[in-house]
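Quick start: read one record
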Amino acid sequence: MSEISVDIVNEAAKGDIKAFESIYREYFGFVANVAFRIVNHTDDAEDVAQEVFMTVYRNLKTFRGESSLKTWIYRITLNTALNRAKRLSRENKQTTGYNDDMAAAQDPLCVEDGIKKDENGKMIGGLLDALNPDQRACIVLRSLEGLSYQEIAETLNIPINTVRSRIKRAREAMMALSKEVARYEM
C-alpha cells in the first residue's frame, strides 16, 4: 500500500470525488480487513467500512497532516470498529467466526488448502472473539497488520505500555483458550 500524495488529499478535502475515489481505492482493503478482524462478522465489517469512509469524506478538510493519512484512517477505522464491537458485546449478539464468502471464492483446484484455511480462519476468529475489543484491536494491529508497538500506541492514542499489556493479556488468553480447545479435541 503506497501513501496517497498530498495533492490528492488536498483535492479530496475540497470535494473532488475523483481524488476521494483514489483514497477509497487505496485504503478500502485494509479498512475492511481491520474492521473484520475487530468485529469478526462480514456484515458488521462492511457497515464499519462504509461508516469509516463517510467519516473520512466529511472530515478530510480537518486532516492536519500531523500523522500520515494511513494512520489517521487507521484511527478512524479502529474507533468505529471498536465502538461497533462494544455495542454488539453489550447487546450480547453472537458473531460468526469466518467470512463464508471468502471460503466460497477458493480455487476449486485448492480444495484441501481451502478446507485448512477455513478451519484456521474459524479457529483464529474464535480466539479473537474471546478477547475484549481493546485487546482484539491491539492483536490485530500487531499480528495481522504488522504495526510496531509505537505505531499501535499512536493509532489508538494510548500509552505504549498499555499496548504492551493488552497484547500480553490477549496472547495469554488466546494460548489458554487454544490449549483448552486442544484438550477437548483429544
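DSSP finds nine helices and no strands in the chain.
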